[in-house]
């Protein structure tokens, strides 16, 4: 059930869920009593709304699982704030994530770290700072006992001919995220690869937006559905 006032979704589970491989690295198997926090920026903030990807994840799992006692429920909390970058997540990790006692944390960050530095490098996050900051966030979450899924940044522009100005930089930050997932032994939801593969097939007219995004970055309805499906794979569904 979606709780707009508290900003989270609750779905029920009657037993253990066993993760299965769906093309994602190290899917996290859900179990009764899990509390999942989706940590990120404006995409995740919107994702916790009625038509967002976080809500869609809850709805799909609810269809599969049906009703169960409250003690068997799983909470899904959205912890996205518009404009956030890795340094912002570091500052609010305790307040918005660790204090909630999660058992699974999905970190989807990187778009603003790249995008905000386009016109002024000082407003973005340089690669070394992105890497060290994200690594520290993972360490703190794992030290709390929670499992982590890292998601690579998606797109800033949907063109498929190499015409998106920030493609190379996004690829660099996605590579950093992939390497951290491997070294820290986290789950990986490789959204960048998934978006690129999908756009190569779907964006036949080389549009800048309108396939999965409304404005080159933020998700439209199709993008939220696509992202929800990728997150479900990373959660072993």
Topology, element by element:
Layout: E1 2-3, E2 8-12, E3 35-40, H1 42-47, H2 53-65, E4 73-80, H3 86-96, E5 104-108, H4 111-115, H5 127-143, E6 147-151, H6 167-183, E7 187-189, H7 191-202, H8 221-234
Parallel strand pairs: 3-4, 3-5, 5-6, 6-7
Antiparallel strand pairs: 1-2, 2-4
Helix pairs in contact: 2-8, 3-5, 5-6
Quick tags:
single chain, 237 residues, alpha/beta, Rossmann fold, 8 helices, 40% helix, disordered N terminus
Q: How many strand units? A: 7
Look at the helices and sheets and give the structural class: alpha/beta
Shape from CA axes?
globular
Through-space gap between termini: 19 Å
Order of helices and strands: EEEHHEHEHHEHEHH
- Radius of gyration, CA atoms, in whole angstroms: 17 Å
Largest sheet features = 7 strands, mixed
The CATH class assignment is Alpha Beta
Strand ordering within the main sheet: 1-2-4-3-5-6-7
The tally of domains stands at 1
Instruction: Report low-confidence residues grouped into runs of 5 or more.
Output: 1-24
Would you mind describing this structure in some detail?
The protein has helices at residues 42-47, 53-65, 86-96, 111-115, 127-143, 167-183, 191-202, 221-234; strands at 2-3, 8-12, 35-40, 73-80, 104-108, 147-151, 187-189. It has 8 helices and 7 strands; from the N terminus they run E-E-E-H-H-E-H-E-H-H-E-H-E-H-H. The radius of gyration is 17 Å and the shape is globular. Helix 5 packs parallel to helix 6 (167-183). It has a 7-stranded mixed sheet with strand order 1-2-4-3-5-6-7, sandwiched between helices. The protein is an alpha/beta fold and 237 residues long. Strand 1 (2-3) and strand 2 (8-12) form a beta hairpin. It has one domain: SGNH hydrolase (Rossmann fold).
């Amino acid at each position: 059930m979606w709780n707009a006032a508290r900003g989270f979704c609750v779905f029920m589970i009657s037993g253990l869920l066993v993760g299965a491989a769906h093309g994602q690295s190290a899917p996290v198997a859900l179990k009764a009593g899990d509390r999942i926090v989706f940590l990120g920026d404006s995409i995740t903030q919107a994702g916790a709304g009625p038509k967002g990807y976080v809500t869609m994840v809850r709805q799909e799992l609810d269809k599969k699982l049906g009703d169960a006692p409250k003690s068997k429920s799983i909470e899904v909390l959205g912890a996205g704030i518009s404009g956030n970058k890795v340094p912002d997540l570091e500052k609010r990790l305790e307040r918005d994530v660790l204090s909630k006692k999660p058992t699974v944390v999905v970190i989807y960050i990187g778009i603003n770290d790249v995008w905000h530095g386009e016109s002024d490098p000082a407003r973005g996050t340089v690669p070394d700072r992105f890497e060290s900051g994200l690594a520290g966030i993972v360490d703190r979450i794992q030290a709390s006992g929670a499992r982590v899924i890292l998601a690579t940044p998606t797109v800033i522009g949907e063109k498929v001919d190499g015409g998106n100005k920030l493609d190379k930089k996004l690829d660099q930050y996605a590579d950093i995220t992939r390497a951290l997932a491997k070294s820290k032994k986290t789950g990986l939801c490789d959204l960048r690869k998934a978006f690129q593969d999908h756009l190569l097939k779907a964006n036949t007219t080389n549009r800048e937006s309108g396939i999965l995004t409304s404005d080159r970055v933020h998700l439209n309805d199709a993008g939220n559905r696509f992202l929800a499906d990728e997150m479900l794979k990373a959660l072993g569904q």
